[in-house]
Amino acid sequence: MSRVRVHNFGVSLDGFATGEGQTMESPFGHADGRLMKWFFGTRTLRAMQGESDGSHGVDEAFASQFGPGIGAEIMGRNKFGPQRGPWEDHDWNGWWGDNPPFHTPVFVLTHHPRPSVEMEGGTTFHFVDAPIEDVLKQAREAAGGLDVRIGGGPSTVRAYLAADLIDHLHVVISPIILGRGVRLWDGLEGLEERFDIESVTSPSGVTHMTFTRRT
Amino acid sequence: MSRVRVHNFGVSLDGFATGEGQTMESPFGHADGRLMKWFFGTRTLRAMQGESDGSHGVDEAFASQFGPGIGAEIMGRNKFGPQRGPWEDHDWNGWWGDNPPFHTPVFVLTHHPRPSVEMEGGTTFHFVDAPIEDVLKQAREAAGGLDVRIGGGPSTVRAYLAADLIDHLHVVISPIILGRGVRLWDGLEGLEERFDIESVTSPSGVTHMTFTRRT
């Protein structure tokens, strides 16, 4: 059975998974790169940038789980871009350049559908206006038996957690207090009862936590 | 120079340091004992209960820092008890029995002063209605050169953190989502810039974090 997975999902100590004030230049708003700093030096991230160097430690062990076994991703519109309302710029297709690091179909949740966009390297963005359960069905079909990754942002991950549709959640707690932004954990009281949880700290200062859904 | 320290301060993954609905039977409200579960089996806690067994591991290494070098504690009224407004019951003196585990003067922040209460074992509760800076001065004098512990609850720790009066903060993150209660981190955006922070996970599932104020 294909699983639904979340990977490399950065959260601040006060529970924010993105900051306030998202713009084209600042996908994470005032959080800037701080929630993903642990990721920047890893071999996995460096490979996405076309480089062959990078770290081999605890952070890389988790970072490298991102791709293998994944056949489709679902992301919220705010992960795709900072535009709101009807699409005004069809030429801008995400923060990732011509060859995004997904290499699978990607379903973007939006109330404003538009034609699919095929990028280099196997990524195709589909824009869908449907309940999250239905989008998951579409993504599973597109994944052809492989797993589906819920890519974020926080509102999207939270919605799938609330609906009990996530099998594996990997969050990375950074020791920073963001103070404002979008919280991951709101409305999820008692979430721990549905998961086996492990934690491990990294020399980079973050704590990796894995939530594995009890069967 | 005497330091101002916080020890064994439990926080949920979503940032709550106590639950909702404090009563005489439930000092932590709906959180019950969940934020302090890691502490229950330690040698330090067992010694407070008059027993000589208990664990010797990571949790105990941190738990044992609670007492040594401390000459006075400051606590918020809600840590002392669930009464609100004017004191109606002078016979009830906290959740800790006749011999509380503080063994020093304890300053209780309240807008309703009352006579001091001397307990067994060296603990004397003083009830003070004054700005937190002034209470700290009183506590430092009472501590006679030793350190002052800020005992909680979250509103009290947060107020002293906001005033930049804490030198050493030990928090213990439990992998639970409380959903409601009193948050520790609110209003503390950028706190990490003032501290050196270390994290270590324990086999009990919690993550111990120490914040050491930069000099």
TrEMBL record, chains A, B:
SUPFAM superfamilies (alphabetical): Dihydrofolate reductase-like
InterPro entries membership: DHFR-like_dom_sf (IPR024072), RibDG_C (IPR002734), Riboflavin_Biosynth_HTPR (IPR050765)
Chain ranges of the Bacterial bifunctional deaminase-reductase C-terminal domain: 8-192
Gene3D superfamilies to which the protein is assigned, alphabetical: Dihydrofolate Reductase, subunit A
A Pfam family annotated for this UniProt entry: RibD_C
Biological process, per Gene Ontology: riboflavin biosynthetic process
Gene Ontology MF annotations: 5-amino-6-(5-phosphoribosylamino)uracil reductase activity
Source organism, top-level taxon: Bacteria
PANTHER family the UniProt entry points to: BIFUNCTIONAL DEAMINASE-REDUCTASE DOMAIN PROTEIN, DIHYDROFOLATE REDUCTASE FAMILY PROTEIN (AFU_ORTHOLOGUE AFUA_8G06820)
Protein's UniProt name: Bacterial bifunctional deaminase-reductase C-terminal domain-containing protein
